Every structure is written in C-alpha cells, then in structure tokens.
Please model this.
Amino acid sequence: MQAGLFGVVGVAAVVFMGRVGRGMKAGGGKGIVALELAGTTKRADQIIKEWGDPGQKAARCSLLVDFAFIIGYGGVLTVASVATSNGLGERTWSGASEIALWLAMGALVAAALDVGENLALLAYLDESKKEDPDESKRARLIGSAKPFAVLKFGLVIVILLALAVGGVVLMARPN
Model:
C-alpha cells in the first residue's frame, strides 16, 4: 500500500518533469541532468545560456517538482528494501536481511543527497540571475551539486541491483 502511494507520487512527478524538461531542450539545450553533473561554472553557464530564459524557468520548475519525485522514489526504494529484508529474513541467512535493511538506509541517504543537490542548483540559478553574481559562491554551489548527484545516482543503482538480486532469491525460495 505504502509503495503504491509513493509510486503514484513519483510517476506523477516524472510525467510533469518530462513535460517541463522540453522547455530546456527546446532550443537544442541539454536536460537537467547535464546541469546536475556540470561541476564547474564554465560548463554550467554554457548549459544555462543554451537554455535561455524559458529553459532556465523550466529548469527551476523541474527542480521544484523533483522534490515530489524524491519523496516518490525514496519511499518506494525504502519500502521495497524493508519488504525484501522481511522476506529474506524468513527464507535465507540473517545477513541478507540485514543488508536489505541497509539498502533502506541507503535510499534515505540518496533522497537526502538529491535534496542537497536541488537546493544547490536552485541557489546557483538564483545567484546567476543577479546583476553582480558572487563567482565564488556560484563555484561552490555548482561544485557541490555534482558530488551530490554522483553519490545519489551511485546509491540508487546499487540499491536497484541489490533489490533485483533479492527478488530473484525470494522467487527461487518460495515459502
């Protein structure tokens, strides 16, 4: 039940972000992931310049809606990890169950990293719009977004792979 609710929130956010994302790509620009992974003001400025004002507004909207997506995927991965832990604990060695519980913690950490990334990118876009932007602040903001994004993506990939393995184990060892 909980995973379904989180899933609905996540899917709705993805659909909306997909529509909003077209605004970033309309002029031949890149999507929001390119900004997440830019790492330097030079690359980030190139991306937001390609977007123009409409694309930058779309990026801001996408980042704001992403907070709903974070709740969605964070919740789904957490609930799935706990359910996998419960199933593995009943059918396999306890270590597998404990690993799955750590996956739930990893999902929460990935969600927190995503929040940090979004806040850094929103602040970067705000600072970039100023008449006299603080270049040091812009460099810190865009520089912090990339490691947040890389760690988040890495955690989510590991969690998805581990849940897939856990699912195979559970199917191979029915009650």
About this structure: The mean pLDDT is 88.
